[in-house]
Specification:
Belongs to the NifU family. InterPro entries: NIF_FeS_clus_asmbl_NifU_N. Pfam families: NifU_N. This is SUF system NifU family Fe-S cluster assembly protein. The chain is of the alpha+beta class and 144 residues long. It has one domain: Alpha-Beta Complex (Sufe protein. Chain: A). The protein is built from 4 helices and 3 strands; from the N terminus they run αβββααα. The protein has a 3-stranded antiparallel sheet with strand order 1-2-3, with helices on one face. The structure holds FE2/S2 (inorganic) cluster (FES) (2 copies). The site of one FE2/S2 (inorganic) cluster has 8 residues, from helix 4.
């Protein structure tokens, strides 16, 4: 249907024109994470200033779902307080689990385009890879 087509276009756009692909210079949190089911890996770097994620960039190899999700994730969390970034990650994983997610005040933006992935259990880890990396970085850094 039309919505699926639109979502597919959003995913392909992030895959072909990734936002925030690259590396950050200077002091930044760096997390490497791989998807154990396929071996694909991403590196995520973040700068956290005054409790907010002021910048985020990623590099890595992976499928269209994992890389478009990394692009969308970095776009979504840039500028967010770390608590909100973690909350958004929770919402995203609820969507992937097919649960009714409580969106609160969050505008999901492009992330919404990935909701169809919930129907393909084998791909869920692809979609959550970058989010797990973000969570790990923030938690290990003692930001929450
Ligand atoms: Fe199988 Fe990503 S791990 S599609
Ligand atoms: Fe490896 Fe999707 S198939 S991350």
């Amino acid at each position: 249907n039309q919505l699926d087509t639109l979502y597919r276009q959003v995913i392909m756009d992030h895959y072909k024109n990734p936002r925030n692909r690259g590396e950050l210079d200077g002091d930044s949190l760096t997390v490497n994470m791989n998807n154990p089911t396929c071996g694909d890996r991403i590196q995520l770097q973040m700068k956290v200033e005054d409790g907010k994620i002021s910048d985020a960039k990623f590099t890595g190899e992976g499928c269209s779902i994992s890389l478009s999700s990394a692009s969308m994730m970095t776009q979504a969390v840039k500028g967010l307080p770390v608590e909100d970034a973690l909350k958004l990650s929770e919402i995203f994983s609820d969507i992937m689990l097919g649960k009714d997610a409580d969106y609160g005040d969050f505008d999901l933006g492009d992330i919404e385009a990935l909701q169809g992935v919930a129907k393909f259990p084998a791909r869920i880890k692809c979609a959550t890879l970058a989010w797990k990396a973000m969570e790990k970085g923030i938690k290990e850094d003692g930001q929450v």
